[in-house]
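Reopening this ticket.

The earlier resolution said the output was attached, but the attachment link was broken on my side. Pasting everything inline this time so it's all in one place.
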Amino acid sequence: MAKRKLARAKKSAEKSQASEQSNGCRKSDRLTQTIGAFPQHIDDANHEDDDEDGYIDEEAEEVQEGDSDDQSDLEAYDDEESAGDEFDGLLDGAISDSEDEDEASDEMSEYDEGSDAGDAVPNFGEDDESQEQEDLAEVIRNSLSDDDDEDEYLSKYSATSEAESQSSLSSDLDDSRIAYYTTGADGKARPIYHDIDPHYSSDDSDIEDTNTIGNVPLSAYDEYPHIGYDINGKRIMRPAAGTALDSLLDSIEVPEGWTGLIDKESGADLNLTKEELELVKKIQLGENAGDVNPYENTIEWFSSKTEVMPLSAAPEPKRRFVPSKHEAKRIMKIVKAIRDGRIVPNKPKIRPEDELPIYDLWADDLQEQQPHVMHIPAPKMAKPTNDESYNPPEEYLPSEEEVRTWNRTDPADREKNYLPQKFSSLRTVPRYEDFVRERFERSLDLYLAPRVRKNKLSIDPDSLLPKLPSPQDLRPFPIKCSVTYRGHKGRVRAVSVDPSGLWLATGGDDATVRIWEVLTGREIWKASVGDDNEAVQSVEWSPARDSGILAASAGEKIFLCLPPIFDDETEVKGQELLAAGWGYAAQHGPAEQVNKEQPCKWTKPSTNLTSQGVDVVIMCRQTVKQIAWHRRGDYFTSVSPEGANMAVLVHQVSKHNTQSPFRKSKGIVQRAQFHPFKPILYVATQRYVRIYDLSTQSLTKALQPGARWLSSFDIHPRGDNVITGSYDKRVTWHDLDLSTKPYRTLRYHSRAVRDVRFHSRLSLFCSASDDGYINVFHGTVYDDLLRNPLLVPLKVLKGHTVVQSLGVLKVEWHPKEAWLFSAGADGTAKLWTS
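Inline output:
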């Protein structure tokens, strides 16, 4: 009875299984074009045209809808039963894999449940099949409840079905790719493949890369518990980090090669390999890290055998027999260092244990601690000498003459405040009278002695200097010597340029006045004006361009000349101006000058001088050192330092008249000069520059340069600034609106300053000195009274030779260009251009 029931149940189960297999075969034929290559869908799961799981399409849905209509065609597909089972095995393996992933992630399952019906994954009858198998097993159990063959039959049936499944799977697949089989969620066998071992070529740089997500950064997986997928599609879980590692470090031993670093690509620990550990160990021990043999055989690059014949037959050089001076200096330097104690030969080495300080708390004399670096020890008293003993040797005892000399000497001037004495014993030594005083002075020394050094302020000197513009931005200014004027015998003491800038006049110790062509350096005119070789002290052109008058001083005479280098019109006007004075002096001179002492005498020159171009000679009482014209060209001043109250004279050319503006002298006058456009006269003495108002005939201001002896000064073309030069090597700039004291003092010369000059148009000034140098400066004067003048050193011109401690004696600027003329003691005049 039971056997018949079991056969009936088995027959129904086989019928049901055949129906399912026919359905699978029909599904496999209809899905061949869509999911025929199942592994390719697994690799291209992320493709944009595929759905989320990589093996779902619209044809699969149509198959699911047509299952019920195709039940009548079961017999037509009986021959394809094995192919359907094979396809079901592959598809079931893929579905079971996806189901495992869905169980591991709740988010994926919720997403699948909430998806639309068109995107749902068809199960192809797997649930129905498993349900039918469970019902079949239940029927068999009920029919064989009292029979002992139930377990044997069930195991036999399951083994038979599993063998059929494995045989169907292995028929079309390569067994070398399958590692082993496992049971899937549908109860069928699922193949597990070997991990893919990709082949890397020698130039592949990604062979060490263990990351499975490509160029996707690990930050994309921050919100997930995994960091990628393995070859079987399973998640690679994130390694433990943070507090989990901290809790395990106390109980787990640190593995060999542990570094504590984490790989940025895979998230795993970065550990050192055995080879790397061995390399680190060799480096720590100081051994050769590479494959280097430290005991290689010696290669004799140079032979150790002494050759009989030398390589060269040349005689030994002399330097091998002469002691080396360089080595002698090095040896003397070392010897000096040894004597000073900076080098200690054969110094014993200090062991590390000896360097550690050891303090004995119970010792009577504690070791003093090392004083501070800035500590200054207290002054110590000098140790007593032999003559301070109560029983000194005989040679230390003073004689009677020394005792008398010591008594006559003032106590403050004595070398010693005691006299050595001799006593028979220490008991006979009397009380020391100066004991209390010396103790008090010792206390003062200890009390007033400094204890700590004080650091000085570390200030960068460059930060204190003003930020000056670059000299390149202040061009043009003279930088080189272009023309040299040679012809004078002796020193050239004076130089002057005419208002047109074409002619240069010079005067020197040879008592001649010469005129040169500026551009070519050719001598045009020469006149001998000095008597008995008197030197020409000053040469100045008249600022009136239409007159062409040149004034020169030699000895006690002033010569007014008309050089024959100008056109006829200029010469006629100059002669008329000089001749007009003779008539005015003849008409008004005797009546106005009765009972008046004449400071100078205007006379006509001799025939010799007239032939040379001299028209007027002015006879003064003392040697004239300097001449300065008024801006209109009718007046000029002359300075005679030895003239006392007549040291400064004002001469008028149109009237042949001379006046003395001062009744008495206030010092030795050095220079005098008119204001560029105001009726003001500047007079420089040895230490002061006095400013007089000629309209009110009063002293307005007295400048105090602070120099011992002024040599020269000049006035800025705008009239508000003055520069002075002195024999004590200083150049001072005075701003008349600020103070009578110097605004700036320039110390750039090493010897006496002979002359200083402003340019008439450009913001330039210069100074000449006996050191043979000419310093060129830039001086900008602003219209804003709140801004101080800007002074910038530009260039040092070197070209004149120092002769008998005299260098450059005179300088003069070109009236239009940034050119400079200089006269030196070497008998030449030079033109410096830009």
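Reporter confirms the inline version is readable. The CA atoms of residues 288 and 296 lie 13 Å apart. The first strand starts at residue 178 and ends at 183.
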